[in-house]
Amino acid sequence: MTETQTGECPPLLFFDTGVGGLSVLGETVKLLPNASIVYAADYAGLPYGMKSEAELAARVPALLGRLVERYKPALATIACNTASTIALDHVRSALDIPVVGTVPAIKPASALTKTGVIGLLGTRATIRQPYVDRLASDFASDKILLRHAAPELVHAAEAKLRGEQPDSGVIEAAIAGLLDQAGGERIDTVILACTHFPLLRDELAGAAPRPIQFIDGAEGIARRIVYLTQKLSWPIEPGERIFVTTGELADIEPYRSALAEYGIRRFEKL
Description:
Helix content: 40-55%
Number of strands: 10
């Protein structure tokens, strides 16, 4: 991994269905504040949680291939749990750059829980993946892992980033979906297994009837990105941050204020 022939440092590519990957981007730019960023949102394919494994295994590598060809990034991060659990191996086979995936933070949650009962909130596609079963077997075999699909939280997070009030009923239903299960009264740690969900951390905590710690993998992903790009020489000044969408650029207008907080001011269509 080297600088481009022009001497410019290649950008970091983040890929998600929408704005959920900003939770990963936010942690990354804390560690690499001057990195150039290309943030790609597949709004034409939203929501991934309702798509079949076969659809995503074909769609995600094809889109990332086009993005890599256009922007020549140093590294790609699939900042989407659903896409990672289904398509990560396909993407790594298709690309010749490092690819970082996003997986549920089961290992750190297992270390944090005091009661031994962990909740996991994700999309329908994520919570049913064998990959999640393997993580639970490897890192939480002596714990109880209760899962609940809450795809509506994706839309609530998108609404929040548009400057709207997220639907409180959706948030309350997500919490109840975990706590009302058998053994749910003992949950003390909840894994946010969708990158959209940390954007609603305050709202989820407010809907919980008691203190619960919410955990996601963004910090660990950011550290992994730093490790894999340690040979790059980052610029002295902050690099450009571009937002790319597969949808219509006009649909991005309501997000501009929130995206500006992440330093994103240039917008393009894929």
